[in-house]
Structure formats: C-alpha cells, structure tokens
C-alpha cells in the first residue's frame, strides 16, 4: 500500500465512531496504525476503546468480539490494491494509549489475525 493512499484512507475513517459488538459492549474507533511492521510482515492495527473494558473479564466473548471487529470493520477497510497485509491486529483498551507506550493503569487486549478472503483466522501471540 502506498503511504499516500494510507494517509488519505486514514483521514477518511471517522474517529469517535461508536460500534456495538456482538457481546453488547460499545467500543469507539481510535485509530489505525500501518507504519509498524509485525512479526509476520506487513501488519495493519485497528485500535478501539471502551471504558467498560476494565470491568469485563477477558474470555471467549472477548475473542469473538475481536474476530467480529476484524471481519466486519477491519477487512472492508483494507485496500484491495497493493500489498496485502499478512496480519491484522485488533486492540481493545479502556482508554486511549499512545501506540507503543506502556500504561500500567490501562486495560488492553491484543489479538492477531491472518486475513483470508473475508475471514480473519486467529493467530495466538
């Protein structure tokens, strides 16, 4: 993907977009990070926040929500021209955290997926 395309694409995605997950939790789109390669090569990270996350346990429902975000939110927003990402990483946090920064007070979950067509295949870290 060209940097110009990604910059224009990122600007077109509205921040503060509220999304209701299958579990009923509401998350807000925070941003997309495409400039940091992952362990499998080209990686696109979609980051979301929800203040309710800190009161919810990480369980199978969390993985289902994150898979749903990958398949219904991330995949449609990945360009169909240019290099295809090898990984999509979905991040859920209870508050905005700068990418790559540590915040011991924040609750954050990360899951990696391999995109295959319209499906996200979970890849445990």
Q: What are the salient characteristics of this protein?
A:
single chain; globular; six-stranded mixed beta sheet; 125 residues; alpha+beta
Order of helices and strands: HEEEHEEE
Strand order of the largest sheet: 1-2-3-4-5-6
Q: How much beta, percentage-wise?
A: 25-35%
Count of DSSP E strands?
6
Sheet with the most strands, sense and barrel status: 6 strands, mixed
Q: Indicate the percent of residues in helices.
A: 10-25%
Evaluate the radius of gyration: 14 Å
Outline the low-pLDDT stretches.
1-13
- What is the number of helices? 2
Mean pLDDT: 85
Instruction: Kindly name the structural category.
Output: alpha+beta
Instruction: State the end-to-end CA separation.
Output: 25 Å
What is the overall shape?
Answer: globular
Describe the structure.
With 125 residues, the protein is α+β, with helices and mostly antiparallel strands. It has one domain (3-13, 25-123). The protein is 22% helix and 31% strand. It is built from two helices and six strands; from the N terminus they run αβββαβββ. Strands 1-2-3-4-5-6 form a six-stranded mixed β-sheet. Strand 5 and strand 6 (119-123) form a beta hairpin. The longest helix is centred in the middle third of the chain and has 18 residues, at 60-77. The radius of gyration is 14 Å and the shape is globular. The two termini are 25 Å apart. The model is unreliable at 1-13 (pLDDT under 50).
């Amino acid at each position: 993907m060209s940097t110009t395309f990604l910059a224009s694409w990122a600007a077109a995605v509205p921040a503060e977009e509220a999304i209701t997950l299958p579990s009923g939790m509401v998350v807000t789109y925070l941003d997309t990070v495409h400039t940091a390669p992952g362990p499998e090569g080209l990686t696109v990270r979609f980051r979301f926040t929800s203040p309710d996350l800190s009161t919810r346990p990480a369980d199978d429902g969390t993985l289902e929500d994150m898979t749903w975000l990958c398949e219904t939110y991330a995949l449609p927003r990945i360009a169909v021209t240019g290099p295809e990402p090898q990984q999509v990483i979905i991040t859920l946090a209870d508050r905005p955290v700068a990418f790559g920064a540590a915040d011991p007070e924040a609750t954050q979950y990360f899951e990696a997926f391999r995109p295959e067509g319209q499906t996200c295949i979970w890849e445990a870290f």
